[in-house]
Specification:
homodimer, alpha/beta, Nucleotidyltransferase, domain 5, five-stranded mixed β-sheet, 10 helices
Chain lengths: ~325, ~325
């Protein structure tokens, strides 16, 4: 490690996903000064991907007119089981990684302290630190995107469980006879309410002759459909899409009730790409369903809220991680 | 409080249920010296029930040839939301209680320190302290009886959540289109795998003409059916009961997988009256189903075991509570 030469007051947060890498520079007040996005190219393997993470970090630092000496630490949220003490990726199904020394490799390449955590835990930490005041003793952040995951924060710290895989709420079975999930089981939350599940249901219905304004907007194949397109369809009064989104909100509300009944956290936050686009339409239904399914008395005073961080939850939380961990040193 | 006159080395654990009160005297090594059981008589209201708890405690102390001065503290597990700091029962649906000062009232009547906690948390604590070695960092105890509840122990302490109602796993929805639950929703774990659910399914099938040895054993109305009768029917090779028990084990395995995916505890313990009688038949199916439904890698090394404490889990855990809390004083 080089001697301190700059003031080292900034932090870099990295969100490493299966398709993209997002990096942002943050002030100690968690203001984002700039972001850089890059494709992950997972086919290049751990070495190739980590080289891209390094490039992404260096680029965003330069983009913000800073030098590496201005950075105190780097935090990274990674999609899988992470041992935060060792900074080691235990396994990451989406990247097909096993036992990758994330922290060690990046510290060598960046010549900066690096701290790693599971991506959903990092997102939850970002929400906890920047969106919740006063701080709750317990929170669960549920993130709906291509897949569905959750991060648990207990007593201000990410809770990751025995195998560092806590928060896999996407594979909580809600309907034992439900649609098949990518994991091989049936009726997982993710198979009912993720973007992938919504899009699949829409595409199947369209093939079966269902009318929707989405085909006018995107063509008969619904090419490049995004969560934002669903919002546009809703604004145009598309009843079919309304029903699809309502159903997803009801499943999400049921999952929230399961969480309230079982872990009884003080706050449940909903985030991710789907919520970023559809929170206005989904939140009221999610809350009503959750309160309906939670046992009497268990949901009293528990806040169910939507995160406004959107795609920035990961980099924000990763910056929080970098800040916390570098302070503790 | 009277001055110390006896050696005060024993503890009393009380399990307060909707139908019965069980109290036991324990040595500091958690050996049970004797037990006394009494009906709860919930219709007499909090005052009447607490008077019976007091009587039960005094009786078991006498039964063990001890005097009140030999008791250091009393612990009690109660069926509902308990604020352990204040020793106050926030609410108890089965007893129809709201805001009952459990600790204060019993301390006055018994002239001994009393500590209260939720019944499932207390059961989990009993399992944790007497059946697990080495101690796991996190465990979930799932108790299958008339209803289904869970206790969560994190870092050696009961975790009860924001409203002190964590662990209500009986109302985790596993099948959104499943059978109606007592709570008003559909497809709750409790509506699929509790003793009540099993008995209801058997009774309905018998009414519809299903043959089972249980009618030979108990008569056509299946009067006073108990979990032990199911075990006897299985031993006699009753295929119908085998199927009912298998289904319950599969639902239980699915719930265990949901817990492993979401909270990822080091140990999952199954207990309660149903397990006490049917563990031999159910455990292999529960474990296989849980490992099947848990995401790859998440269940690795996690122990799924049956408690041997049976009906004594509550009094044992309550004694542990009394011992721990009176030490901290």
């Amino acid at each position: 490690m080089a001697e301190f030469s700059g003031k080292r007051e900034y932090f870099v947060g990295v969100d490493l996903g299966g398709t993209k890498i997002l990096a942002g520079v943050f002030t100690p007040q968690l203001k984002c000064l700039g972001k850089v996005k890059m494709s992950t190219k997972p086919e290049r393997g751990p070495e190739g991907v980590l080289e891209r993470v390094t490039r992404c970090v260096k680029e965003v630092v330069g983009e913000c007119n800073l030098k590496p000496d201005d950075i105190r630490a780097v935090g990274i949220g990674a999609p899988g089981a992470v041992d935060p003490e060792a900074g080691r990726m235990i396994f990451a199904p989406n990247l097909k990684w096993e036992d990758v020394p994330l922290k060690k490799a990046l510290e060598k390449q960046l010549d900066l302290p690096v701290f790693a955590e599971n991506d959903c835990n990092v997102c939850a930490l970002g929400v906890y630190e920047t969106e919740l005041d006063p701080k709750p003793r317990s929170m669960v952040g549920i993130f709906l995107g291509t897949g569905i995951g959750a991060g648990i924060v207990l007593d201000g710290k990410p809770y990751s469980g025995f195998n560092r895989t806590a928060g896999e709420i996407g594979h909580m079975v809600l309907d034992v006879d439900g649609p098949k999930c990518g994991c091989g089981n049936k009726g997982c939350f993710e198979a009912l309410a993720s973007r992938t599940a919504l899009f699949r249901r829409i595409q199947t219905a369209v093939k079966d002759g269902q009318k929707t304004v989405l085909t006018d907007m995107l063509g008969p194949e619904l090419t490049d459909m995004r969560s934002g397109d669903l919002r546009k369809a809703l604004r145009r009064g598309d009843k079919f899409i309304e029903q699809i989104v309502e159903e997803a909100a009801e499943y999400t509300g049921t999952a929230v009730a399961n969480v309230i009944n079982f872990l009884n956290p003080e706050v449940v936050v909903l985030g991710g790409g789907v919520m970023d686009q559809l929170a206005d339409e989904m939140m009221a239904i999610i809350i009503a369903t959750a309160e309906d399914y939670a046992l009497p008395g268990t949901a009293k005073g528990i806040k169910i809220i939507a995160s406004k961080l959107g795609d920035d939850a990961g980099i924000t939380g990763a910056a929080v991680l970098a800040m916390r961990e570098s302070k503790e040193r």
